[in-house]
Amino acid sequence: MGRKDSAQAVQKIESGCNQVNVEYLEIISNHLNVSVDYLVKGVKRTENDIELSFETLSGEKKLYVLLRLLTYCCKIDNYKYKALINKILNEFHEEEE
């Protein structure tokens, strides 16, 4: 698909001639780091929405999110622990693929 074809596809979606399927909505939402609800309705997720989505994750994914939050919130300056946590995060990421 060339640049012109892409522009025409976007114009068709914007005008309502074409519908975006769920698979592409998820790809776009992951790429932009926003919810599908936000893309479709312009609705931002509330804290309750985030909490609910966290509760529905598997144990391993919850741990992965927790470790990422830990590294973000603590701004770990000690490179020994930062490297260890990043190693653990990378192992989780590799298992998901």
Rg, nearest Å: 18 Å
Helices, by number, come to 6
- What characteristic shape results from the CA principal axes? elongated
SS content category: mainly alpha
Mean pLDDT: 77
Largest beta-sheet details: none
Give start-end ranges of low-pLDDT stretches: none
What is the number of E strands? 0
| Beta strand % | under 5%
State the helical fraction: over 70%
Order of helices and strands: HHHHHH
Gap between N and C termini:
27 Å
Helices and strands in order, then pairings?
Blueprint (H helix, E strand, L loop, with lengths): L2 H13 L6 H11 L3 H6 L5 H9 L3 H16 L4 H18 L1
What's the quick description here?
The protein has 6 helices and no strands.
Describe this structure in words.
It is a single chain. It contains 6 helices and no strands. It is 75% helix and 0% strand. It is mostly helical and 97 residues long. Helix 5 packs antiparallel against helix 6 (79-96).
